[in-house]
Amino acid sequence: MRTKAFSTKISKLVLTSMIACLIVLVIFLVRIPVPFTQGYLNLGNGVMFIGVMILGRRNGALAAAVGSMLGDILGGFAMWAPWSFFINGGLAVIMALVLSAFSHVKMSDAGRWISRIIAMAAGGLFMVFGYFIGEGIMYGNWAIAALGIPWNIGQFAVGIVLACVVLAALMKTQVIKKDGTL
Fold first, then answer.
1. Quick one: which of 124, 19, 95 has its CA closest to 62?
2. Alpha helix segments (H runs only) across 75-108
3. For the range 12-19, what are the long-range contacts, defined as Cβ-Cβ under 8 Å and sequence gap of 24 or more?
4. How far is Cα 36 from Cα 143, in angstroms, rounded to an integer?
5. Measured between alpha carbons, how far is 18 from 32 in angstroms, rounded to an integer?
6. pLDDT truncated to tens, each residue of the chain (182 aa)?
7. How far apart are CA 31 and CA 76, in angstroms?
8. How many angstroms from the chain centroid is the CA of residue 44?
C-alpha cells in the first residue's frame, strides 16, 4: 500500500516536470532576437517565477534550471545550457529565499503581492548579472555583454507581470491557496 507521503512526492515530481516542460514551451513560443548579441528574449522567467511560488525552493529551482537548460539545448543554443542551468537555478533559489524571509511577517494581501514582486525582482537581477558575466566570458567582450543588460531587465520585468496575472487567476480557483502555495 502506498503512503500519502509517497503520493505527495510523486505529485511534486510530476508537477516539477510539467513546469520544466512549460518553461521549454514558452521559450520556443516567444523568441525575440536581441540586437547586437546572439541572444533572444523569451517568457521563461514568468513560468520560473510561478514555479517557485507553487513548488518552493528546491523543486522550483530544479524546474527553472532543467527547463531553461533544455530550452537552450533544443533551441540550438547548447553552448548556453550550462550557464542557463546555474543562472536560472540561482534565480529560483534567490527568489525562494527572499519569499522565505517575508513569510514570517504578517501582512495584508497587498503586502504579500509586494513581497512576491520584490522576490521576483531579486531573482531577476541575479539572472541579469549572471548572463552579463556569461556573455562577457563567452563573447570575450564586456561591451557586448553590457548591451544585453537592459534587454534582460525587460525580460524579467515582463516575466513578473506574466507571473502576477497567472497567479492572480489561479488564486481565484481551487488550484492554489491565497498565499500562492499548493
1. 19
2. 81-102
3. 12/55, 12/59, 13/59, 15/54, 15/55, 15/59, 15/182, 16/51, 16/55, 16/59, 16/62, 16/63, 17/63, 19/47, 19/50, 19/51, 19/54, 19/55, 19/60, 19/63, 19/67
4. 10
5. 24
6. 466 666 788 889 999 999 999 999 999 888 888 887 778 889 999 999 999 999 999 999 999 999 999 999 999 999 999 999 999 999 999 999 999 999 888 888 888 999 999 999 999 999 999 999 999 999 999 998 999 999 999 999 999 999 999 999 988 887 676 666 66
7. 12
8. 6
CA dist 174 to 49, 167, 177, 178, Å? 20, 12, 7, 10
Query: What nine digits make up the cell of 155?
Result: 525580460
Cell (9 digits) for 164: 502576477
Side chain identity at residue 17, one-letter code: S
Cell numbers found for residue 38: 546572439
Grid cell for residue 149: 543588460
Is pTM beyond 0.85? Reply is yes
Q: Which of 143, 119, 122, 121 is nearest to 132 (CA)?
A: 143
